[in-house]
Amino acid sequence: MRGSGATLPFRGAGNLRTYILLCNNIYTVVRLCNHFLMDPNQANFCLSRRTLLKLGTAAVGASVMGLGNPSFGLASPGRVPQPSGWLVGRWRTDPWARGAYAALPAGVPQKVRWQIAERIIERRVAIAGEFCDWAYPGTVQGALRSGRQAATLLDEDGVGVSGRRALVVGAGVAGLGAATKLRDQGAEVTILEARDRVGGRIHTNLSWGTPIELGATWIHGVSKNPMVPITRSAGLTLAPSDYSFDTRSIETGTYAPTALKVRADLYDYLSEIEDADPALRWSVAEWLRKEKWDATEPEKSWALNTLITQEYSVDADVLGTHAYLEGKDDRGGDAFVLGGFQRAPETLADDLDVRLNSAVDLVSANKRGVVVRESNGKLWKADIVVVAVPHALLKAGSPRITDLPKKTRRAVAQLRTGNLERVVLRFEEQWWKSFDVTAQGIGLVGARWSEWYDVSANTGVPTLLGFCGGRAAEGMPASDQAAASEAMNELSRGFAR
Fold this sequence. Notes:
alpha/beta; 16 helices; Polyamine Oxidase, Chain A, domain 2; five-stranded parallel sheet; FAD/NAD(P)-binding domain
């Protein structure tokens, strides 16, 4: 999940002085804001992610109407050079993820999350994951909070954990959060992880000799975020993210400045959901149709894609209006994790008994204890268990949890795991210009890979990071080379003129 921001407009020599003044003033403000936003001690200055998004899109609308074609510094090359390398993320087909993160479909209330999170099976088995956290769903901090909450619930449920044998299924952030909490409460803990690594959907690729994130990349709301001290312990740096957009049309190969105004208008429409109680049974697409929002228009489709589909991992006709009201404000702004995000879960796993390549297919609890079975037939016995696998796996019965309460089964079935995939392109030279910020966006109207970020400052090499989500991600080319080629074709068409 990511945010947005404003672009800087410039057209013609007559606007040069105005442009320079705007750059200087805005740059100063941005840097000052980032300083305070990144400082947890300056809590009174912290702004919510939603507030920042609204301020950013409003600024975009004003700049588009005031000074013409926007350009935050992207060059217009005669031809986009071929990349020297590419990496493609494929969480939908990953057997231990089967998608990105879970969303609330139309007609499904928020309470289904706590119906999963707060149900203790036979007073011995709890479930954890980002899909269980009703305050920060779909985030790394939500996963961590959920794992810790599961451990706390087991301790408070009359069984107690001190001196008990505990198993945790899954070594993602939720599972590691549960395991560290159980250990701190005095339990003897073992983690069973299906992969050959810890971290789950945090995955740092090092094949280029520099950290490239193929999973979770940002931390949202750095103020009081429990992941912040963990990243610092891991020796990582949090860089404030500036979500500036330069929009281009792949149909015309030129700037598409009005798309940003359309995006700002859409945000205003979506903000009105908070006051529309009857609409809570609708999908976001249904609600917008009632508001006369025509999503078939290319720029409106792009706006809906970037504000909804790539934020929630499902399309607007699937996402319920309930989902737009979920979660607390993420105070402190967003930050890009530098140095390899996977070091954070590896730090959490220090001094824990983690058994890799140990896929679990059955969890069976009764009054005497819990039996956990690996797919190779190996049996484990424990007093308490936390199942911390992605929602899509739990929904598919992997592992199967015996005697799962009917309400819990129904709640798990009601959630929808969506898709958010990425392609990372490395170039020999930076053929685009960039300000001294962490991430700037290139919006491509009419493209599958409709949202790009310049992450060169983070990787140390000229790098663009592209996203596609929802059904668009389901239809991406089967091979990595074909996906990279498609993405390059769209970039080239966007910069044709």
